[in-house]
Design goal:
295 residues, mainly alpha, 2 domains, 13 helices, 75% helix
Length: 295
Amino acid sequence: MGNSCHLNSFYDIRIFPIIFKNRNCVTTVFSIRFQEWSKFEKIWFCIFSIVILCTTIIFSYEGTDYKETFSIILNWFISPISALTGILCVVLAAKAKISTWTYGAVNSIFYGCVAWYSGYYGDFLINIFYFLPSQFIGLYYWRRHLKPLSKVDVTIKKISKKSFLAILVSCILLAVLWGLFLHYVDSWFTNVMKRNISIYGDLAGIFGPAYTLLGPMLDSSTEILQLAGQLLMILALPQQWIFWIATNVITILMWTAVLLVNPGSAAWAVPTLVMWIAYLINSIYGCYNWNRRLS
């Protein structure tokens, strides 16, 4: 294999040897190849980047304590890097490029820092202890299943309808059980895993006290859908996009509820809502692109 990136040993699975072993490795794991993108993809990437970065800047401007050095670093260094790597991660995923995992790893670390400092401990736990390790697993698996004569494009796999249905039913069951757990079990763990607890009251305000389970059920759904979507992405299955689309739709509905009940939250809720809409559009394109390549 000459100078190519070998991932057959434990040494090679670790991220730093993969990146720094030789120039071919660097080219592979960071490759974007913007010049090869279609006109639509370039335009979408620019629009997507502007939308996400603008939402980040708004949050940074509103949330920075300019008397604290760490607050400045968090909001004007860590947060923008998190946003940029997040954009690259999801756009490259839609294009089935192996470098999505590299930017995903960086994003998991930086977003995990933002989540921890912001008090979103559930997001911190999911990003650091699930999404971060899964980036290395995905990088390793995709590297072993690249398209013939390609160093950056993964071979998209197929899954039977029966297997997909089994996964879907399992996700629904797990989401219900997890939602009930979040609602009825009062502990430090359930409190930190309520990723969107701030909008639980808003949902109850719209639908009434009889629907107090709605918040934790929607919250648990987004968590389970993300876990399943990431697993299917590692396996290079196009059905992953169904889970990402569902996650984005549910999250959009939740943030829309915030605006309906509390219009005063527009300063931070609108940018968040716009960001999730952008993610939804990207996931729809990813679904189209992966299925087009499969066929």
